[in-house]
Amino acid sequence: MKASLGNRIFDIANIIFLGLVALVSAFPIYYVFIVSFTEPAEFLQKSIVLFPENWSLASYKYLLSAGSFVQSLGVSSFLAVVGTVCSLVITSSLAYALSRKKFKGRKFILLLVLFTILFNPGIIPNYLLVRELGLIDSLWSVILVSLSNGWFVILMKGFYDSIPETLVEAATIDGCNDFTAWIRIVLPLSLPAIAAFGLFFAVAYWNQYFNALLYLNDASKWPIQVLLQNMLIDSSSSSLGDVDPLMQPPPSETLKMAAVIIAIVPILMVYPFLQKHFAKGVMIGSIKE
Q1: Which CDD domains does the record match to this protein (predicted)?
Q2: Where in the chain is CATH 1.10.3720.10?
Q3: pLDDT > 90? residue 87
């Protein structure tokens, strides 16, 4: 059908408006990227840099020469990898158990899971629990308090409910127990959901800030987000600690921009590999056949 004049005008206006919104949204990221690669001397000479005449890696070299910065990257990587694996194991196994109709007491446990969604214990009870467990200044304190999410358990249970019960029954007839059927039959069919929830958990662990600030008093165990927050507050480069004194520190603004780019690049690199599973995984179980 041929679009009317009014529809064409609306489409053009809509495209222009959304283009402006996209431009306004993307400009801060572009500016952070450009400043991080700007030659320090050029940045000091100009009030604003939209495109540098001289590109430089000085800020990145200075950051990566700081032991505390590299260590914080290692801490964040540990939280993202180990935390994501632990969260996926706990969430997927609990969701699978709740999806099995023959599991006695599953309705009561499901009510407990729903209760955690509606009522959160708060900061003080969580802190007291972590302290009594002796996990203060331990990276496991950050992982354990974020180990699972009631909402994710419900969503993954909905996915497992969409898998035909006959597949598990056929595996049982062939000699598989519940655990073997979950490992060999259900999990391979769950890759889209695992990828989607794995991305959610990985982003959450990589961006851990408040829990790390609350439970980790040792600065050597801070993840990248806590160190970045200190850098953004501190106008100097002293928050980086041990840096080669022979290296000339770049302007603090270029250091901050370079730190922001380094902090967001790992997630940007992971997302394309999971994108095809992500789009499918978030929709599975949303429609009941």
Answers
A1: TM_PBP2
A2: 59-281
A3: yes
Residues forming a β-bridge with 38: 55
With a CB cutoff of 8 Å and minimum separation 6, the contacts of 149 are 91
Pick the CATH number of 59-281 from 3.30.70.20, 3.40.50.1000, 3.20.20.70, 1.10.3720.10: 1.10.3720.10
28-68, pLDDT tens digit by residue? 889 989 988 888 888 888 778 888 888 888 888 888 888 88
Query: Does the pTM of the predicted model rise above 0.90?
Result: no
Residues 273-283, mean pLDDT to the nearest whole number: 58
Six token digits for residue 126:
């969580």
Listed in sequence order, the DSSP H helices in the chain are: 5-36, 40-45, 58-64, 67-99, 106-118, 123-132, 139-144, 150-161, 165-173, 178-181, 187-189, 191-206, 210-215, 224-233, 252-281
CA distance 61 to 249: 10
DSSP letter at 55? B
Cα separation, 47 vs 57, in Å, equals 20
Which residues are CB-contacts of 141 (< 8 A; sequence separation ≥ 6)? Answer: 130, 133, 135, 211, 215, 216
| Under 8 Å between Cβ of 98 and 106 | yes
